[in-house]
Amino acid sequence: MRIGILTSGGDCAGLNAVIRAIGLYCYKNIQNLEIVGVPDGYGGLIRGDSLRMTEHDFSDILDRGGTVLGTSRQPFKRMTVEENGESRLEKMCENYKKLGLDCLFTLGGAGTHKTAALLSFEGCNVIGLPKTIDNDIYGTDVTFGFQTAVEVVTDSIDRIKTTVASHRRTMLVEIMGNKAGWLTLNSGIAAGADMIIIPEIPFNIDAVCDFISGSRKDKPYNIIAVAEGATLDSEAAFKKSERIFVRTDMGETTVTRHLAEIIGERTGTETRYTVLGYLQRGGTPCAYDRLLCTRLGSFAAHLAKEGRFGVTAAAVGGEITFNALSDIAGKYKLVDPKGATVRSAKDIGISFGIK
Amino acid sequence: MKYAVADISSSSLSVIIAEICGTEIEVTGKERESLSLLYYMDGKDLSRRGMEKLAAALAQMKSRLAEIGVGKCWLIATAALRHIGNFAEVTEFVRQRTGLIVNLIDGKSEAYCDYIANRCYSSCDRAVLVDLGGKSMEICALGDGKDGMVCFDFGLIDLYEKFADKIKPDENEAKDMGKYVRTRFDKAGLPEDGEYKTVVLVGQTCGSIYDMYKEFTDTDEGDGAKTMERKALFRLIKRLISGADRSRLILQTAPEKTHVILPAAVVLKKLIKRFDATNLIVSDYGVKEGYLSLMLDGKESGAYYDFGSESTEGDARMPLGKRDKGRTGSRTPVRRNKSEEIPAKKRVKSAGDGKQS
After folding, report:
1. pTM (predicted TM-score)
2. Which CATH code fits A2-144+285-328?
């Protein structure tokens, strides 16, 4: 059996731990095995690049951040567009055959899964693995990399908090998450933020300012966790393209800076903002993710041994299982504004910037 | 009272919510969750994971129906579930997890439900209903009632399993599929040229083809009837069979129907050409609406879930012993030597004959 592994999209902690689990399972449980790594994600498959991986290559990468295979972003929209008479999808299918693969593991987020579904539809034996710090892949309770990012963001807010408290400021902390607010919600709660603003719950500026003014009676500083995809209630009806147009015209892609200015002006509190940026992706996986990655990788390799393709590994109710790619591709798992986590936060007085 | 009928197909769980307004049944809501059962098979049987997925989807659906105040819900399953090897285990699992009992609908009853739901199209010029399912296909002349039905006990998944090497058939495989379908249609005595002018397409797969058609032709749905222009549909079918972006087209509109969209396109083209039909209508109504109508008229049977008493009432339709023989759900090609169609009692006649039931 000749197996390929690729990592695609933005990196996150745990990619190497999954690669390791796949490799070790396969070498221990599958006869006549050859594993190749496809460098730089789908980019490598489009070019037809590969590198042979021995058992030794998998032995010492459990706690290493990033991905030993390298990664790249290949927009899904471009996959079926013909370039010089051939689409990227066609090139990938050709190279899948040329490389003699019996199975390809694709480690990635929602976009990677959509492309994996395309490959599967074209007859490639694909098994996906749910990677993203956004935790927005449909059909799995949790994605690998998410928990590590929660730890990193929580720790960052903890550190910011000491400065903010000393200077009696209001601090907006911008956290990754364009469509889904899981990372902002979970780390915001874990770090004791006063307000959490996420894309799923469009915020109201008056409500935000009223809350900050009111809370100053009890507390001399405020932490607001803001997802980069946070949306004003007045923008909620806009299409994404319209929102981007308006923001680009204002010279920004997110609402955080603008919101910080308004809070400062209206409440009279010294207000700052900080963007955590790529800090959130980097570093070694936390113990939870190492365990999750090992379970997901091992299970995915078992699926390959069984010959079950066109699926992606998933964590559901504490168990590791699988979903059909066709059932999850193109869908997102978003925060339920009426869900238990949001309710718990509201119950202890955390504001979501709404009236 | 609000009523609901949920249908388990090979690729989705769908539900309609309806209320009685005077003498009419008005469908007030529809929901659909993709569920590609084919990916959850262990040979002939639905795997444990497949059963869990099905039960979880049903439990979610049930809780949404309770939220919106539905009083009674019937759960039906057509050929897709009927042909699962461990059908009894699956239905028992569903019952234990959700309290819902599966009512099995055989091919002929499915066709009749389609017919009942679409009688309004009887006034169309020489109309025929076409329902393309995963494990069966129903063709029914509008106006002829049960006499005008032909039920094929092979469906789109069977065609995929028999002819496609990969997930989607290539051009040659599509041609072979077309030849096979034509032979089966001939054997069943399906009418040819000029018999029907209007084809009314029923069911989720035909609905998905219409969604693709809209995307392909950049058509706005509007408030009127869903219609397709024959030439444009054939262009879409050609693209689905050989176009470079066919996978993207399917993924955007109906990812859970990957295995069946191309067989459906092949069958549809064969039928339209065979009938030389020019009016192509896609109906919003199908087996669920027809079943509900018949149930409320007391002409159908089946167990239902009563949300008031939180219990199941009545007996399941079509007991296990009477169900069709199990057939493979695996990729193994389905090969049968003799024609297994249920022969039409009489030749399917056009609605233009003026006979209506």
Report:
1. 0.85
2. 3.40.50.450
